[in-house]
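Changelog note: in this version the structure field was regenerated for every chain. One regenerated record is shown below for reference.
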Amino acid sequence: MKRTNGRRRHRGHNRKNYSNINKNTVLESSGPKSQVRGNAYQLNEKYSSLANDAVANDDKILSECYFQYADHYYRLNKEIEAAMLLKMTDNNENKSDNNENKIDNTNENNNIQKDTINSVEKNKLSRKDRSLLAKSEESSELEIEEKLPKKFTENKAVNLSEVNK
């Protein structure tokens, strides 16, 4: 293998792995015109304000670019919040297991927490799985509508053509 010196740029090798990201992690964003540093919330606010400034200057392309950056950091911020919520619920479950004899209301709290965990896990599904889940929910709703009598219209008035048959 050929040895390279440190001055050369290796594409993609300088990317950081943000698998353990939290709300205080400082991110470096190289946007369309300048490099911006800050956490996900700060970057979202910064790009939103830049986008609004671009809209005020009638620069649609630049404003759309900034809005896309703002959307990315908004989603990243929501992902961080969901991870923190999941971590908090795990910590609460561990504490409730240790203090089971002291607290009688943990069953109700755990049910609520499991519902929030299920909603977080639902959001973590892949795009394909979420679409399949949405289609199955939609088809179950359609099956219920198909079981209703067809002689009634949306206004709950009798459709005369159906009655005459």
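Spot check on this record: The chain is about 60% helix and 5% strand. The two ends are 83 Å apart (CA to CA).
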